[in-house]
Every structure is written in structure tokens, then in C-alpha cells.
Amino acid sequence: MDLLSHTITFRHALAQWYATAQRPLPWRTQPSLYRTVVSELMAQQTQIKTMLPYFERWMQRFPDFAALAEAPAEDVLKHWEGLGYYSRARNLHKLAKEYVALEPKPRSREDWQQLPGIGPYTSAAISSIALGEPAAVVDGNVVRILARLTDDARVFKNNGEAVKAFTPTAEAVLDQGNAGEHNQAMMELGATVCLKHKPLCTVCPVLAYCAASRKGSQEARPKIERKATVKVEVERAWVLQAGKLLLHRIAEDSGQLAGQYELPRLETVASPRSAKQLLASKSRSITHRRIKEHIYQVKAKPRIDASLEWVRVEDIERITLSGPHRRWIGELLAR
């Protein structure tokens, strides 16, 4: 069956499946506008299974817009620690402050898009799920589903181009009278069945509408050009003296990681001829970058500048570190 010729039966099949197959996520079992907003910002760049414990902890500390608006920035960042992409936490904090002050409160997709950190996708998700506005949500999951349903072989330069291309199709199949549930069903289908690799076609509730599955081309859809992998190597310094660890505090105007601590770069604390010992080599990935970080124990007296701070070992839990650096510091202290 052609998708666009059978939108009513497609919506019905999708809705029936979602009613029984949806995961009992906390923002679904206890829905509210605030919980929808927090979950949508947390889910950007983060898998659901990873963000769940953070969401629960966040709700205990910041149960509503007012509590979040009144919280110190350091507390907000500390409760986000480990999720990465910290601009999301800063935007959420700013959003809460603006939302509390706004009268009347934002209702439409256009209203929400004026708030910090809210783009076309997030505004559509919030306004449809929490406020009932008939707006189609189009993210990577939805692009993948629609590309396979229509067997679209176009090659897109990036995700943004693909989202723009499939938005008209998403709007055409949207259940206007129940947009929030429909959008969540589409996202759930992409997250649990219409997977990027090895999709579970045999249990797909809308398989009858999938042109790609009939041709066996589902794993080739969508076609999105990926950035070439860039390899980066960084040398870090480990300086532990008298129960204090030397750390670098990232400047407040540095974007994503502003105000956080990390192990300092080796070249900032030691000369090329300084005595040092390799303690560990660690790898991590950020988008298309593959980063290898070598941590050296510096045995000579370190150079100290204004960006470096001695932090007592017992205070390390209280400061905000990037997730990988907290793990590495914990491992090295445990030795």
C-alpha cells in the first residue's frame, strides 16, 4: 500500500501499536508541560536509556519551572554532569527563568521557538505533546521511518537537509486530532523497531505501507552523507600534591563546557623537558571526532596560571567535571 494514499489506515495501525507497545517512560506515565520540556532537551544528543537516571534526579531537585528558575547555575550544571552538551542545561535554566516571568504563557509552536534552546523540532514536540497543537515532529527517527516507507533514494548532505525534505510528508501523515500521541508513536517506532541497523521489520506495525521493505532496500534508507572522522590526540597532566589535584577551570565564555573543570593540558603545566610518566591513555568520541587523551604524571614543579586551581580530593565530588574526566580521575585516584 502506498503511504500517502492510505494515511488514515496508517495512522490507525500506528496508534493501535503505540497504545500497547510504548515504553513506560516517566514523562509519559506522569505527563506535564514541564516534564515534556525537560525530557525533550535531555533527549537531544542523548539516548533515552542514558538520560533516565538523570531525569529522575533532575525532577527530585528541580520539580517545576519555578524551582529550576531559582536554582544557582552551578547546581544546575552539577545535576547535568555526565550528559554532555552542557549548553542544553544552560538553555533550560534560562528558559525556566523566562517562562516564569512570561505572561501570558507560551502556547503555540511559534511562541515556544522564541525561548532559549528551542528549535523547530523541540517546539513542535512540546506544543503537540503537552499542548495539543497539530504540529509534526521530524527528527532522525522520523526521517528514517519516512525514507523507508517511501523508499526515498535521494542523497542528503546532512541531517538538517533530510529533516527539511521529509517535513511535508510528516505533516501529510500527521493525525491532526491527536498530534502528540502520533508524534510520540513515530519517535517510539524509530527508537524500538525501525532501527538504524537491522530494523525489526517482522514486528513492524506499519510494514504493509513500507516501500523499502518490499524492495529490500530498508537498510540503505535514508542516504545521508556523514562527516569524515577526525582523529585528535591530547596530552593531559596529572599533578597530585598534599591531597590536592591540579585542575583547569574552563573559562565562562567558552561555550559548551564553560565553568567546568578538567585535567590541564600537559603543555600548560610542564616544559617539553620536564620529567613525566605516562599513567593512562583514554579514548572518547564527540560527534565525528575520535579523541585519544594521554595522561602524564608530572614529577617536576608545575607552572601555575590563573586558569589552574588546586582542588582537594575530598571536594572533587562537589565540582562539575566532564563525564570522561570524572571517570578517569576516579580510576587514577583509586590506584
Automatic annotation (TrEMBL):
The keyword Ribosomal protein does not apply. Coiled coil: none annotated. Signal peptide: none annotated. Keywords: DNA damage, DNA repair, Glycosidase, Hydrolase, Iron, Iron-sulfur, Metal-binding. SUPFAM superfamilies: DNA-glycosylase. Belongs to the Nth/MutY family. Adenine glycosylase active on G-A mispairs. MutY also corrects error-prone DNA synthesis past GO lesions which are due to the oxidatively damaged form of guanine: 7,8-dihydro-8-oxoguanine (8-oxo-dGTP). This is A/G-specific adenine glycosylase. It comes from Coraliomargarita algicola.
